[in-house]
Write the structure tokens for this entry.
Amino acid sequence: MGTKTVDEAGTTEAAEVKRDEEAVDATPTEATTEEEQPGTDEVAAAGTDEEAGPTGVGQGAGAVVSAALGLVSLTGSWIGTVAAARQTLVGQLQTSSSASVAKQVKAVYGDAWQTSALWGGVFALLALVVGVVVLARPAFGFPGKPQAAWIKSVAWGGVALGVIGLLLAVLKYTDVLLGLPSAG
């Protein structure tokens, strides 16, 4: 029952030897040249192309930065808020209490509003430039390697937010959008 006879053991060993010989025959020998091994040049070339080509990480980061800058241009930034508060303080200090109401409103609130618009415009312009650079990058780098679809989408979003932010900043700065009320 659990024991093997001499004939069964000999057959098993012969099958193992035969499998080992087939495995040796399947592996290329040292005498084989590269020309006889199909596909080795293709594998080596594919490996170097992938290593030498760009990964798209920089383009993806640029697209995200463009979208973030565009969003900041619409919602406001810490720098814009601080600059507007500073301009409000400067307006209060430079305006005497005997000045007309229109002059006080302009100095205290109008200049701060324009400063806020100016900083929004700066962020919008940065978003626009970064987005355009990301979209134009494949034409100057590796033109044969396509840009990932999400990178294009996010970069176009950054460009759109930059254009909208720049338009709103110009409208705010020129007092076309939410201009100062007339004080008499």
The chain is about 75% helix and 0% strand. Residues 91 and 107 are 5 Å apart (CA to CA). Residues 101-140 form the longest helix (40 residues).
